[in-house]
Amino acid sequence: MKVFVKKLIALTIIVSSMVACQDSTTEDLDLFEVQASLNKEEVISMVETMIITYPVTAITNSSSTTTLTSDYDMEDYAASTSRPQITFPFDITIDGESITVTDMKQLKSLIRSNKGKKKPEFVFPISVELVDGSTQDIADKEALRDYLDSLDEGVKPVFVFPLSLIVNGATVEVSDENELQAVKGKSAKGRRPNLVFPFSIVLADGSTQEIADKDEFKAYLDTLAEGVKPEFVFPISVEKNGETTIVNSQEEFDALVKKPKKGKRPVFVFPISVTLNDGSTQEIADEDALKAYHQTLTKGTRPVYVFPLSIIKDGVTVVINSQEELDALCGK
Fold it and tell me: CA-to-CA distance for 306 and 181, rounded, in angstroms?
């Protein structure tokens, strides 16, 4: 009997040690995962305090990679990913200083030390110059997002100056692209396509007028009624990505400078419905209603959609039956 009791005690000690070891291993693994990833609040803090040089590669919930090309992509990624992980290295700018981030420890330290700061922000409304020389007003952050999504991949926006930014709580006016990039701590590069001067345009009476430079072109555009586009005399030349291309027709011109951005985010087929905090549902009739709903959410909070719903991606309508399917299709 004594031998049996001793064996039972020994077995109990062994099992307890194994359980304790397993618990310790699990805790160590959880700690490692926390140290190797970010949380949503840390990602949002990055967006608010750092000027991130895009594109940046990140790891999704399905362990695949996704490419983030803007702060808007980064915010969407934070809202849809349980353990955000950014692939190193990547570059950021803080207070005009360019920093290459090489590991998670460095990134978390930078996030902690800069928490509460604000990077330069536009004072809306602002205006941007379209490739045909006309301008478009941008009323707010969401309108800026829509405009950026319309650009060809790698094409930078062209702002109409002067414009104002809020820098460290003060309003600063900048008069050109170089000043803007200096405030952001970057150099001006990656410009969008430019018309090569001189060229000619067709007037309302059928005659033509030669445009010698950008100032003359702006003066001509000011004479046009709202919504009227200039009519070029082809061929003309366009400079894009350092190369000059001869354009022989309006169709060629549109194809060159107005190509939709690759990887443009999917578009919902409205109406859709969302689940509110009290468990009730709300129908979203259109894009404006969706924007209004998003504005009611706490930053970093993910909308809860009612499935099935449909989205359009790359021109194809797809029926989505769950959040997991939506994440997989969107690369989240």
Answer: 42
Q: Cα 110 to the chain's mean position, in Å? A: 21
Q: What H or E segment, with its residue span, contains residue 200? A: strand 199-202
φ and ψ at 286, to 5 degrees?
A: -160, -175
Alpha-carbon gap, residue 74 to 79, rounded angstroms: 9
Region label for 95, one of left (φ > 0), alpha (ψ between -120 and 50) or beta (otherwise)? left
Give SS3 for 154: coil
DSSP 156: P
Rounded Cα distance between 296 and 11, Å, is 58
Rounded distance between C-alpha atoms, residue 112 and residue 286, angstroms: 39
The residues, ordered by sequence, that sit 6+ positions from 118 with a Cβ below 8 Å of its Cβ are 48, 49, 166, 168, 169
Residue 229's closest CA among 126, 131, 128, 127? 131
Q: What is the pLDDT of residues 147-186, one digit of tens each?
A: 888 877 667 788 999 999 998 788 989 888 878 877 776 5
Which residue type, as a one-letter code, is found at position 3? V
> For residue range 24-71, what is the model confidence (pLDDT) as tens digits?
544 444 444 446 689 999 999 999 999 898 889 898 888 888 888 888
Closest-CA residue to 161 (of 174, 172, 171): 174
Burial class (CB in 10 A: 0-12, 13-18, 19+), 21: exposed
CA distances, 41 to each of 47, 110, 288 (Å): 10, 14, 26
DSSP state, 197?
Answer: S
The Cβ of residue 110 has, within 10 Å, a number of other Cβ atoms equal to 18
Distance CA 150, CA 70 (A): 13
DSSP helix, strand, coil percent of the chain (3-state; round to 5): 35, 25, 40
d(C-alpha 304, C-alpha 106), whole Å:
34
Task: List b or e across 299-321, with b for residues whose CB sees 16 or more CB atoms inside 10 angstroms.
Answer: eeeebebeeebebeeeeeeeebe
Extract the tokens encoding 199. Answer: 């060229």
Identify the burial level of 293 via C-beta atoms within 10 angstroms of its C-beta, where 0-12 means exposed, 13-18 middle and 19 or more buried.
Answer: middle
